Amino acid sequence: MINTLRVYQELKELMDNAAAMKIAEFMGKIYEDLLNTVTKADFNELKESLNRLAEAQKRTEEKVEALAEAQKRTEEKVEALAEAQKRTEEKVEALAEAQEEISKTLKNLAIEVASLSGTVGFSLEDIGRVVIPGYLERHCGIKIEEPERKFIPCGKDYVEINLYAEGIKDSRKVIILGEAKNRIYKKEVMDFIKSLKKIENKFGDKEIFKLMFAYLVHPSGQELAKKNNIILVCSYQR
Question: 4-11 and 17-37 helices cross at what angle (nearest 10)?
């Protein structure tokens, strides 16, 4: 029940006594009327509503707590993923450094191989100068002197023939145009054919014998050479 006296005491500090008393009495009457109109059923319904609201609030808090826990697990997974990403980046960086080292090593190796190839190529020519004359005489009936390196003019440039020789076959003068390669594959034969096409009209009506000399001949080079009438001689042949 509303305390009319207490309301009166609080109101009289704001207004005169008579007005404060009237308002306090009026509020008391309103409160009593309100109590008379609210039934027990209304009160019980209100109580049940409050209970349902409390239960809903409890479930909401449980869901919020579960969501917070899920968020915590997600943050832990994100942190673990970030750590894994960091390790991956470190590995990629290490791999890039290793790749750079490999590239430097390969570059140095390529330089050494190129230098070695030049030396071996020269030695192969020397072997060819010894082997080819006897081979051509025994297998092709061609007599030549020792082959030499020759640069044949071609427009403003020159075509290098590293096994060039002039010889005799059945009383006819012939020209030997030879190329020395460590290994002969299809590509080496194609490159030789391209070079020959640039100078094939430089020897008048003399018969030309095309020849390639190598340590090893691959079947792909052998097939193409045969189609283009190129004699293939290996260093071990006599």
Answer: 140
pLDDT in tens, the chain (238 residues): 456 677 667 767 777 777 778 777 777 777 776 666 656 666 567 667 767 766 777 788 888 888 888 888 989 898 888 888 989 888 888 888 888 888 777 667 656 654 555 554 457 999 999 999 999 999 999 999 899 999 999 888 999 999 999 999 999 999 999 999 999 999 999 999 999 999 988 898 899 999 999 999 999 999 999 999 999 999 888 7
Phi, psi (5° rounding) for residue 205? -95, 10
Q: How far apart are CA 23 and CA 28, in angstroms?
A: 9
Domain ranges of the chain: 124-234
Q: What is the DSSP letter of 114?
A: H
Asked whether the beta carbons of 153 and 186 are under 8 A apart, the reply is no
- The fold of 124-234 is Trna Endonuclease; Chain: A, domain 1 (3.40.1350)
